[in-house]
Amino acid sequence: MIPCEETRSWHASWISAGFCHLNWQSPALPAPYFRKEFNCSAQGEAVLYLCGLGYYELYLNGKKVGDRVLDPVVTQYDRRARYVEYDLTGLLKKGKNVIGVILGDGWYNPSTADCWHFDKVSWADYPKLICELEIDGKTVLASDDSWKCLRREGPITFNALRNGEFYDARKELPNWSSTGFDDSGWENAELIPGPGGVLTLQTMPPCKVTGTVKPVRTFPAANGSVIYDMGGAYTGWARIRVRGEAGAVVKLRYSELLNADGNNIDTSNIDQLVKSGEFQTDRYTLSGKGVEEWEPRFVYHGFNFVEATVESGLAEILEVEGRLVRTAFDSIGGFECSMPELNRLHQLTRRSFEGNFTGIPIDCPHREKNGWTGDAQLACETGLFNYGLAESYAAFMQTMADCQRPSGQLPGIAPTGGWGFNWGSGPVWDAAFIVIPWNVYLYTGNHSLIEMNYEPMLRYIRYLGTLADRRHIVKFGLGDWCHCDPSRMVDACVTSTAYYFYLTTLMAKCARLLANREDADELTALAAEIAAAFNDAFYHGDGTYAKGEPTAGAIALEFGLCPPVERRKAAAQLAKHMETRRCRADFGIVGAKYVPRALANNGYFDTAFRVLTQPGYPGWMHWLDRGAGGLWEHWIGTASRNHIMYGDVAAWMTQFLAGIVPDEKHPGFSRLTLRPFAAEGVDFVKAAYRVPAGEIKVEWEKRKGSFFLKTRLPRNLKGVAHLPDGSRQELVGGNGSFHCPL
């Protein structure tokens, strides 16, 4: 279910610790603490509403409330901020109670200079909150200037998302959120303006710590530190246990790589775009009180390795663990087969998808943490085949809409401080605004996301028309990004124009779905004109498009640009090209999605399978051979080692190997189409996927020259299975068993 944006009337005021905002004052100050002691006589239904920017932690009577982290989800703050609703029924005591809140800077008060100018965003301000408590519908507590705050003396002395968090345990505040605490030295909070946008309920799943990993090995570094290898590309932070003298400092640095000698961490592949402060560095100053345990609150990092150093004083590092953080959406799909390499690739894809969803879908968890729209749209089918994402995607689409200019233009990252409109965007990236709502409908059957965003989506199509020349050719935008050989990359005008057609076609379908017939007819006619222009400009009549690049042919086939009478030739040329290149990945991120799909959908499944599984560079198996802990940004691995933009491979496995095929005639898999391919070298496949009707389970195996298929479907679900010999079998709810010769 995708809820509408819910707002409420507030009796509370926005408050902050009242920093003086002078030019000489650093924007990065200690995290402020807030507390309010109040009497509670009623014991009814208690609901607390809270928005704390940038991030917050909520405490009640000395204990943290819930297990949420990095809350609330980042938004375009001058357009929208999100509040969280807490059910405190049964948690309040009769008599005195204390609400406590710690605020972190997050994205609201970014102090780090970076390439995207978030340090100059218009909304930036010192952390602030608004809070209200209702019991049986009556307001009993509202944030105002009677709340007490600690401005500068708290233990979180520094926190910045692109740098790290510093904590001084000597400044800890025992019982600060409990009754009886002496807050006479604290100051009163100040009433201040809100962030400027509407305040809406956060309905998507929060970020949580979803796992803890222990090092697979530990070894000394050349600089005297100790390096902890966590065994994979993860998102989150380290939790440490230490003991030592008061004032001793332990420094933690995070990296994906080691240097060439393997004896120091190396961040040179990911640190070049952060322009101030220490990159991915946390510090903990010991209190000297026995064994101490600590982990950050308001930052996260991307890492395979953690370097721990006793920077000053005497201390012993007893333990370092990796804490894994992501949006806590449900896992609803799974895949397994007899080929260990494919299983490993599927696992790494899931790891990178999860680690690159921290409230919003991001490109990477270390260098940028930005909501790159192109990465999000290219990986969304993998997401929808594996996770319950409707609410999370709805929130991201709202952020994209909040970023949209009146002209319809969209930035390449969302949210944005103004960067990404004139570079880093274009149809392939902006496609997220239409492709994601459409795929949410296709996979779940719920069209409310299309309905909520229809007008801004249509406005974007109109905007694309202003970028097109008189022939409907669009030259603006990023194209088949991160090709292994830029000289072989298809021109951006090919991908941008193809996406112009594709998005116009999808928008026509959306219009028809919502019974907007006039829009549908207009968009259908426009799509036909774009298709004619595309083929006139880029098709050569021999099955090849543009300069013969596989991405050009693949998107022509997959988007429906290739005329029906030319499809066989185009598919044959695409397969020939890939076979000539020994099925190496002769494409960037657009081709990584559409070349395997176009081949499999047009009779060349074996070639598509070899594209995914051929060893050597460039290709997915090359990453596995190099010991990848996640999906990489470049085929060669010189940049980020945790990107999701090549991640459609997991969706491909579910759709083409397991055979679970999305069908726009039956959205939400209301009628199931199974079309499993019996790939050479694969002896069995098992897949599970939860659709609105219930869980689908598919298993097939090869045995004694025959293909055996087993299904388990929800009771009321029907469908059809297309077996490898071309036969059709009707599917009904419950268990099914079928076979055919190979």
From TrEMBL:
Residues in Alpha-L-rhamnosidase concanavalin-like domain copies: 223-311
GO BP, one annotated term: carbohydrate metabolic process
Location of the Alpha-L-rhamnosidase six-hairpin glycosidase domain: 331-655
Domain Alpha-L-rhamnosidase C-terminal: 664-735
A family per Pfam: Bac_rhamnosid
Keywords annotated in UniProt: Hydrolase
EC assignment: 3.2.1.40
Top EC group: hydrolase
Keyword Hydrolase included in the entry's annotation: yes
Protein name: alpha-L-rhamnosidase
